[in-house]
Amino acid sequence: MRVLVVEDEQLLADAVATGLRREAMAVDVVYDGAAALERIGVNDYDVVVLDRDLPVVHGDDVCRRIVELGMPTRVLMLTASGDVSDRVEGLEIGADDYLPKPFAFSELTARVRALGRRTSVPLPPVLERAGIKLDPNRREVFRDGKEIQLAPKEFAVLEVLLRSEGAVVSAEQLLEKAWDENTDPFTNVVRVTVMTLRRKLGEPAVIVTVPGSGYRI
């Protein structure tokens, strides 16, 4: 899952990003609304965690722009105000969910995960295919009932492949969804991660390489 965190309190933004990365999400961070608009114009995000009171460009305007563009990106709006009227206003602007500060990180993570499932084809909370069962909330993976321990990037790649429901996912798409913008696109990190993931999942291999196209399960 690819997430953009937009928060002008840099310590909070970086802490949220670090926590979400530990949950096997690819996370980019910006600290003002103008930078947020620049990022959403370049990258496809599943979820934007958006502070409402942003400098340069207000969070409300960022949210409105996402809606105007017709993007499938879901918006989780954050604000220091927990008043009902503010929550209603945020949702009317186009936010998909609303979380007042201060918040529990576990709740933030759960809400981001829930929004990430609201794709054009709604996905179940637990992904299952070819004997593999992946629970994003619990960070658990099982194959044929046996638990498998995966590193965060391996988990993220497997989640992207399972979300594709049998469709081929290119290396570029995996790089976009499982790594953040600081990753060198010319490295072989995708190929190496897929190889390690295959080994951990065991035989018979369930990740199929489609020559010239990518991977699928």
From TrEMBL:
This is Response regulator transcription factor. PROSITE patterns: OMPR_PHOB, RESPONSE_REGULATORY. The modification 4-aspartylphosphate is found at D51. The keyword Lipoprotein does not apply. PANTHER family: REGULATOR OF RPOS, TRANSCRIPTIONAL REGULATORY PROTEIN CUTR. It holds the Pfam family Response_reg. Residues 124-217 form the OmpR/PhoB-type domain. Coiled coil: none annotated. Gene3D superfamilies: 3.40.50.2300, 6.10.250.690, Winged helix-like DNA-binding domain superfamily/Winged helix DNA-binding domain. Residues 124-217 bind DNA. It comes from the Bacteria. Residues 2-116 form the Response regulatory domain. Keywords: DNA-binding, Phosphoprotein.
